[in-house]
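tool_call: predict_structure(chain=1)
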Amino acid sequence: MDRKDTVLLQKIQALATTNPEIIEEFEEMLTAQAEFVASYSYHVQGSWPKFSLSEKTQKISVKDCCAAWSTTEKLVPVPDIFNDKLDYTCAQYKDIVRLNKEILPVARKFTYFDCSASALGALEQFRELQTSTDFFGSAGFDDARRS
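tool_result:
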């Protein structure tokens, strides 16, 4: 049977592998000046059976959306028992990129505590940190990635 700390670390490692791929795709969209559809509006003129329908889309550049994105969500720091000085500030896109790089090495150290309750709690907290700020999903970047 797998130890709980090993299972949590595997989830953290999987996110640490997947997130850079998403970040790289996002960086490519920034470079390519990609846009995504932020909203649709429809206007019906006339009445049945003679009418016309027009569609208007509002697009936003990925760059503008990234620059405007911020969060007031406060991440709960994991106790710094290894003196890694991990900065849990996550107010802008650059903070997400930085935290994604810094979390895994620190999380690995907690597996040395052999499934203690505090180590498991810290590992779960790291995993939650990796997923708590849903920058890519909520901002509409899935649409931009498909276009």
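agent: The first helix runs from residue 4 to 31. Proceeding to next step.
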